[in-house]
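TA notes, week 10

Several of you asked for a full example with nothing omitted. So below is the full record: structure tokens for the whole chain, then the designed sequence directly under it. When grading your own attempts, check the secondary structure regions first.
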């Protein structure tokens, strides 16, 4: 059984839960679908969780499944989960899709890949309080996050990881983030990268998922990067802790529901 078949089977096995719906969203023009999971009351503030846009970064995919199977997500929110946004990449263990495309550069102009178009179209029916996209950085020895705006959610994550003795990336100036931006367009802190979204959009060959969510007006947008040099178990622990910390912080900040 390939990893996507296993993932799909485990998600579909959860369909009996009263608070959860699992559906498949068609990718127009190619013979594939994406899993889309709805969890929690529709009138609660909505959080978008996604993973697997790079097929060689599987930790986030299994972290999201763990969180739902074990009932760990805060029930004061509703969730839209995209458990694996690059199924063909997961099967082949490659960063790109079967067409050789880095999907995380295809979220501009309504979506320039079948996967991005499917996600952007489906997401039009909801407004989100927060968006978390789960990744891994294969060269990182510790966790870090991209946080847009002036929020403090990344700081809360780093504090939580420190308490659990999980490694955090120092992000010295010489660390290569792989982002084609000048140093003055990025503010680097321990475990956190703050990027000018306008300059990022101009510099990249296309829009990322997180940039697309930011453009939609989502107040809290983070890209979470687990340490690729850590063990698979540690990577999942980092991402789990990051997600749960953000949800706890959103609740502590007493943020009101987002409505249409």
């Amino acid at each position: 059984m390939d990893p996507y078949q296993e993932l799909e089977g485990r998600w579909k096995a959860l369909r009996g839960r009263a608070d959860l719906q699992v559906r498949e969203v068609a990718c127009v023009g190619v013979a594939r679908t994406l899993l889309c999971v709805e969890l929690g009351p529709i009138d609660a503030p909505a959080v978008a969780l996604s993973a697997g846009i790079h097929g060689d970064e599987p930790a986030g995919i299994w972290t999201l499944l763990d969180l739902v199977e074990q009932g760990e997500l805060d029930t004061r929110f509703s969730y839209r989960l995209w458990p694996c946004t690059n199924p063909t990449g997961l099967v082949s263990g490659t960063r790109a899709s079967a067409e050789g495309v880095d999907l995380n550069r295809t979220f501009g102009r309504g979506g320039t890949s079948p996967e991005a178009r499917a996600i952007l179209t489906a997401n039009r029916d909801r407004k989100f309080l927060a968006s978390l996209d789960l990744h891994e950085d294969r060269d990182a020895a510790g966790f870090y996050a991209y946080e847009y705006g002036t929020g403090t959610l990344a700081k809360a994550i780093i504090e939580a990881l420190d308490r659990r003795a999980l490694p955090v990336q120092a992000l010295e100036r010489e660390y290569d983030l792989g982002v084609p931006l000048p140093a003055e367009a990025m503010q680097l802190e321990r475990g956190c990268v703050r990027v000018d979204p306008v300059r990022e959009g101009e510099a990249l060959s296309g829009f990322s998922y997180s940039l697309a969510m930011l453009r939609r007006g989502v107040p809290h947008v983070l890209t979470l990067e687990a340490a690729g040099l850590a063990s698979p178990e540690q990577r999942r622990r980092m991402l789990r802790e990051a997600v749960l910390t953000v949800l706890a912080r959103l609740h502590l900040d007493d943020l009101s529901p987002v409505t249409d």
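The two ends are 42 Å apart (CA to CA). Use that as a sanity check on your answer.
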